[in-house]
Amino acid sequence: MPSLTQENRVRRFTYWLLIVAGIYTLVPFLALCFFNHPQADDFSFAMRDRALDYLTVFRQYYTNWTGRYFSTITLFRINPMISGSILLYRFYTLVLFFLFCGGLYFMLSTITRVALTKKMAIALSGLFFTLYLLQLPSPSEGFYFFSTYATYQLPNIMLMVMLALLFKFFQTQQTTAKKLYIGLMAVLIVAMVGSNEMALVITFTTIGFVTIVNLKNPKARPYLLVLIIVCVVSCLVAVLAPGNYNRMNEHPNGGKLVWSVVYAGFMTGLSFYRWLLPLLAASIVYISYFGLPLAEKLKNNRAFIVDLRLVALYFLVTIFLMNFAFAWSTGERATPRLENVIYFFFLFGWFYSLQVAIQNYSWVFTTNYSNSPIIPVFALLIFILSVLNIDNNISTAYIDLISGKATAYDKALNHRYASLKGSDCDSCIVAPLPAIPQTIYFADIISGSENSTERTDRIWINNGLASYMSKTAVFLSEPNPPVQDNLTSLRNAGKSTLREKSVIK
């Protein structure tokens, strides 16, 4: 059995390694903020909010398009492209990353304060942040494209803040503090439910789960009843919007109950196949260095003294309902921006379920994990290797930077804006992008040849940019190049460097 000193060294090394992994993950994504540009809906929504007052937008969209009364109708009023500032657009993405990291640390440090030191809480935040960015289905839609992150990522941040406030609510004995927390959570619930359908499902099931768990808690019941009422009313306002049903008419495959149920069940199972492998390695690390200390210190905490079957039901039903909501309304598979939210819940729901399992069966975990550090160290090695894999999101972000793709993308778009503003053309032809940095790229305008053949589904992007630039039409002179895989990008970057050196000589 290893000595206590050796075990402490391993623990300290693990915590610092997880902190370094978190920093390693964050650095390229922050750097890419300085190359970010508006895309697609950013231009069309900016034109909408320039031309129409808020009440007109609310009436038109709530009646004809969507029940998202907070994000699409309200929050988009701060779209930086209304003022036309690319610098502000990039500043927003930086702020978003800091808000996400801050919300994550606030939630974890609040819950683990009595059990973990500050360094341990930072390490745990690094572990979760790395896992999230490692497998995020679409980083561009998660953090760089305003129209999607305002709709889908900000509610995730609000959820983390709400969970921290909910934990504080159960910890305090002061009536004034309880009322304050409930008031803040009610505001967050209204905002989250009105942001998107995925957030609506998560908010409803989470508040419902917490209420069911605390039905026998007379001190909490009246307050939780307030949250339930606020949540139900907000859901009704969002779901019963006439615009939702008008929009469903554009999806002839929507509204098929049996297909939606079968499909949602299949996608729920597929979530484990797609995302579980790195989580398993991280889970072993979590159990040894975070889960067991938390179980020891939070033995009597209501947040974790829960029937594991109820937790598993909450976890699986929430994932199922998120997949069902989109399948029912559109008849299609959830898009990457929606999968971002599903993965967010999958990640944190998995670790909450794991912690509840540790609380309920601590003797099993203690027996298997306390005798030797070999298993968690091996799991840590697997986790770090997955972070360094050439084909994941983190490596892609670094390659987008070092290959020069982000720089070329930035220069090309700046030149495009300048040429459109300086030209008196009505129907304008602009050059394609020289390279596509996958991390920050969502969609671009199409060429005339694409418009006349197979890509007419994206002509709305051209129309949005043309309207924003006061043009009748804007097209690419030829299609954009395909997105290169990471190895190809590195090879091409190396060849380009060698050619430059030979020219200099």
TrEMBL record:
Keywords: Membrane, Transmembrane, Transmembrane helix. The chain crosses the membrane at residues 12-37, 89-108, 120-138, 150-170, 182-211, 223-245, 257-290, 310-329, 341-361, 373-390. InterPro entries: DUF6056. The keyword Transmembrane helix applies. It comes from the Bacteria. The keyword Metal-binding does not apply. This is DUF6056 family protein. It comes from Pontibacter populi.
